[in-house]
């Protein structure tokens, strides 16, 4: 495969020649991960909040989410492909989308649940004391105070999903994983390395962006 | 009362779902491939376990000592840099590391071991570091004041009290590693991932399930086993629920 | 036994935490290092066992400079107790108590015996607690274990850094009393850091009052209360210093100078106090009673006389006149 210096330049060349396609795959990747995360948040955050009112259900749900988390992603895809094939969606976007939502649940539910659970009881008392009702307390006191922790859960889920999204390319869901899957089939090293680099950049960028967003959403006065 | 009903309903739905899944698997004879090729299955399983064990062992041997090293006073100035690198490393997907290593080392068992090893270092290092740093500084102060030597502080105070976190890191790393090893097939590492990818490529559900189900069961079993080990190894007083 | 000679501690370039402090701690004494936070009292304490280095001056332990002693061996010879008790959560109570003997390589039997002795000393059931972990104990129990752990290898000296600071007032009082009772038997040389004047008066044979790293006054509690060396000491001691000084005097001391009054009141009509009661409590009972007096009883609960306000007052005035200041060596 030649010396490393020329490999480096060939990778640069590959990037330059295929920049449009790589950007297109990046958009696909972001759409897959982004849409899954939005749905995951819409399920996970309310569920996490509800669980703080039902301890028993909380441990059940967190255990289930924990077991899902231990299932290797390629194995979960492998199981879901035949299941979704029953409704003719075996290969493609749907199984990947569902898998990503499932994997996001543990970090999002767990962080929401623990954060709300751990809101200082004195703050909660004070909210009641000034005459807030349950909803006001939730939206004006508990959620603003727990944004950093909930966001940390979302960030974990996003970084995780970007990685799993790569594997989803092998079941035809598109995205940057295509560079790796096709690169491997064709034995095209520059393509594989470009894919790895593009994915790493996407992962790091997403993490930085979410850290920034977290700071923006966190009310001043909460560290 | 009402809350218990909700909990039980959820549990019953999950069990019914699982039952339905296994009925579906058996009624379609999806495990036939496994039964008919049991010899090959054992070879793949052995490869899989070898890859996981070897790379995990190497990762523990590197990550735990390095985390201990950067928490020693002489090396503490490197801790910030190392932690930043490790945290960045964590945002890089495992498939990317596998692919990069393949780009550098070509395909084969060794490449797979190296790539899996690199990815497993991160959670172990992170948890060991966090575990040691979370040991209350008062304990270290007491130990020093009572005349513990530095190595005694490490082995009698810091490590036992960080043990829970360290083992949790190892558990995370090993479970992720079992999944990542399934991808090692792509770079010529062998293992149970073989049947999954073949199954996807030839649209054969039986091959697919025969690969995917055993990996899932392996991951869940190892996770449970390591949780039990956690209970056994960590002194009762040093578990997080008791602090 | 412990001597500070012109000890100075400077952090970084120019933060002086301890400034030219000299003081002697005699064998068998409790010396309380007292002062507001940031006055250097904890630094002063931690320099003895080498947890803080000495910038200038010297500290000697049994006449030997601590610079010449092996740090690890020195520490094993000095008991060390801190506010948050510092019990190791990973070790059982027995392992915690015998941790220094373990370091010193004692035999299993010796350690077991020592553990049982020490638990008896603080009135805890040795069997009950043997296999339990620190988090399963109450704050007061944990602190007792912290104290006996420091005593385990029978060190001649102890360093105690606000050892009872985290306990609530009622428990603190009890643990203090218990500790004083133990000390009366063991006669350890003790350096004790506190920010609480009441605790210092109660625990200390002498008090070293610190401010901004400097030693303001080093004297017996009675002297600090009656003859404050400067405005800072007077202010720190508080306006009620005469009332506080009542705490350190007991009826039996009063009885050495005066005869008790002959009582003409029936037993039971006024409060009774024992000979070991301190004058602060006594005065409080006197003020409460209509007859302005209390009965003093002996060990058999027989009334041996009575005390009134005039007698307490007389004793305090006398004491202020007769007390010579302790010479600071």
Task: Please outline what is shown here.
Chain B is mainly α. Chain B contains 10 helices and no strands. Residues 324-329 of chain C have low confidence and may be disordered.
Strand content of chain B: under 5%
Q: What class do helices, strands and sheet pairing of chain C give?
A: alpha/beta
Task: Report helical residue fraction of chain B.
Answer: over 70%
What is the CATH class designation of the largest domain in chain B?
A: Mainly Alpha
Coarse morphology of chain C: globular
Oligomer: heterotrimer
Report the strand count of chain C.
Answer: 13
Backbone shape of chain B: globular
User: What's the arrangement of strands in the largest beta sheet of chain C?
Assistant: 6-7-8-3-9-10
Biggest pleated sheet of chain C? 6 strands, mixed
Q: CATH fold name of the largest domain in chain B, please?
A: MetI-like fold
Radius of gyration of chain C: 22 Å
Please name the fourth-level CATH homologous superfamily of the largest domain in chain C: P-loop containing nucleotide triphosphate hydrolases
How many β strands of chain B by DSSP?
Answer: 0
CATH-level-4 superfamily name of the largest domain in chain B: MetI-like
Family (chain B): Belongs to the binding-protein-dependent transport system permease family. CysTW subfamily.
Membrane topology (chain B): Multi-pass membrane protein
Keywords (chain B): Amino-acid transport, Membrane, Transmembrane, Transmembrane helix, Transport
Subcellular location (chain B): Cell membrane
Present the secondary structure layout.
The complex is a heterotrimer of chains A (223), B (243) and C (329).
Chain A: H1 4-17, H2 19-51, H3 55-70, H4 73-85, H5 93-117, H6 121-129, H7 134-168, H8 177-186, H9 189-217
Helix pairs in contact in A: 1-9, 2-5, 2-7, 3-5, 4-5, 5-7, 6-7, 7-9, 8-9
Chain B: H1 2-27, H2 32-36, H3 38-70, H4 79-90, H5 94-105, H6 109-133, H7 137-145, H8 150-183, H9 193-201, H10 205-233
Chain C: E1 2-11, E2 15-25, E3 30-34, H1 41-48, E4 56-61, E5 64-65, H2 71-77, E6 78-82, H3 93-97, H4 99-103, H5 108-121, H6 126-130, H7 139-151, E7 157-161, H8 169-186, E8 189-194, H9 197-203, E9 206-211, E10 214-219, H10 221-226, H11 231-237, H12 241-246, H13 251-257, E11 272-274, H14 279-288, E12 293-297, E13 303-308, H15 309-322
Parallel strand pairs in C: 3-8, 3-9, 6-7, 7-8, 11-12
Antiparallel strand pairs in C: 1-2, 1-4, 4-5, 9-10, 12-13
């Amino acid at each position: 495969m030649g010396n490393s210096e020329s490999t480096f330049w060939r990778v640069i060349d590959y990037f330059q020649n295929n920049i449009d396609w790589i950007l297109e795959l990046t958009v696909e990747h972001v759409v897959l991960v982004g849409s899954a995360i939005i749905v995951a948040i819409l399920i996970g955050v309310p569920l996490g909040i509800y669980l703080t009112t039902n301890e028993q259900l909380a441990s059940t749900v967190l255990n289930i989410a924990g077991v899902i988390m231990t299932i290797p992603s390629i194995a979960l895809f492998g199981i879901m492909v035949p299941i979704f094939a029953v409704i003719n969606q075996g290969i493609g976007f749907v199984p990947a989308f569902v898998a990503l939502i499932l994997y996001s649940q543990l970090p999002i539910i767990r962080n929401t649940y623990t954060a709300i659970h751990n809101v200082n009881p004195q703050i909660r008392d004070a909210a009641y004391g000034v005459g807030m009702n349950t909803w006001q307390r939730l939206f004006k006191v508990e959620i603003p105070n727990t944004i950093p922790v909930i966001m940390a859960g979302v960030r974990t889920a996003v970084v995780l999903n970007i990685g799993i999204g790569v594997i989803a390319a092998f079941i035809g869901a598109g995205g940057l994983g295509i560079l790796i899957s096709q690169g491997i089939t064709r034995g095209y090293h520059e393509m594989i390395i470009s894919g790895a680099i593009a994915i790493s950049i996407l992962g790091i960028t997403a993490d930085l962006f979410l850290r920034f967003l977290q700071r923006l959403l966190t009310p001043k006065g909460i560290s | 009362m009402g809350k218990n009903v909700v909990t039980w309903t959820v549990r019953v739905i999950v069990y019914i779902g699982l039952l339905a899944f296994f009925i579906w698997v058996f009624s379609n004879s999806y495990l036939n491939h496994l039964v008919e090729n049991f010899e090959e299955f054992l070879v793949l399983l052995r490869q899989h376990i070898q890859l996981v064990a070897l790379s995990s062992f190497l990762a523990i041997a590197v990550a735990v000592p390095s985390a201990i090293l950067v928490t020693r006073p002489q090396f503490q100035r490197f801790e910030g840099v190392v932690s930043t690198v490790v945290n960045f490393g964590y945002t890089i997907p495992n498939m990317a590391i596998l692919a990069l290593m393949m780009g550098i080392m070509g395909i084969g068992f060794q490449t797979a071991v190296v790539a899996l090893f690199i990815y497993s270092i991160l959670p172990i290092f992170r948890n060991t570091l966090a575990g040691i740093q979370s040991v209350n500084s008062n304990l270290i102060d007491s130990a020093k004041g009572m005349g513990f030597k530095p190595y005694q502080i490490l082995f009698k105070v810091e490590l036992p009290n960080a043990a829970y976190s360290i083992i949790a890191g190892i558990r995370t790393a090993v479970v992720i590693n079992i999944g990542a090893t399934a991808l090692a097939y792509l770079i010529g590492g062998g293992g149970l991932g073989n049947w999954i990818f073949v199954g996807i490529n030839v649209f054969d559900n039986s091959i697919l399930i025969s690969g995917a189900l055993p990996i899932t069961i392996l991951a869940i079993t190892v996770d449970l086993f390591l949780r039990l080990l956690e209970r056994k190894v960590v002194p009762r007083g040093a578990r997080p629920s008791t602090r | 036994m412990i001597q500070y000679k012109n000890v100075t501690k400077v952090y970084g370039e120019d933060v002086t935490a301890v400034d030219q402090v000299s003081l002697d701690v005699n064998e068998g004494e409790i010396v309380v290092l007292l002062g507001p936070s940031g006055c250097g009292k904890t630094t002063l304490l931690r320099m003895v066992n080498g947890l803080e280095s000495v910038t200038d001056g010297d500290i000697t332990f049994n006449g030997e400079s601590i610079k010449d002693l092996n740090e690890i061996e020195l520490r094993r010879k000095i008991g060390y107790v801190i506010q948050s008790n510092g019990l190791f959560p990973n070790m059982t109570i027995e392992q915690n108590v015998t941790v220094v003997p373990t370091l010193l390589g004692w035999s299993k039997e010796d350690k077991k015996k020592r553990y049982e002795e020490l638990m008896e000393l603080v009135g805890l059931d040795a069997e009950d607690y043997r296999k339990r972990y620190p988090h399963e104990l109450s704050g007061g129990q944990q602190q007792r274990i912290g104290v006996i752990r420091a005593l385990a290898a029978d060190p001649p000296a102890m360093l105690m850094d606000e050892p009872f600071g985290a306990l609530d007032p009622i428990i603190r009082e009890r643990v203090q009393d218990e500790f004083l009772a133990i000390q009366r038997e063991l006669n350890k040389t003790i350096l004790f850091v506190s920010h609480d004047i009441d605790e210092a008066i109660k625990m200390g044979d002498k008090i070293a009052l610190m401010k901004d790293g400097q030693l303001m006054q080093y004297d017996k509690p009675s002297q600090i209360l009656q003859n404050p060396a400067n405005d800072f000491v007077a202010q720190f001691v508080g306006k009620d210093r005469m009332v506080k000084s009542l705490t350190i005097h007991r009826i039996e001391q009063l009885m050495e100078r005066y005869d008790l009054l002959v009582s003409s009141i029936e037993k039971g009509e006024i409060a009774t106090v024992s000979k070991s009661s301190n004058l602060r409590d006594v005065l409080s009972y006197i003020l409460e009673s209509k007859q302005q007096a209390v009965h003093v009883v002996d060990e058999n609960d027989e009334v041996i006389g009575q005390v009134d306000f005039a007698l307490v007052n007389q004793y305090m005035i006398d004491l202020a006149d007769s007390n010579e200041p302790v010479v600071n060596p």
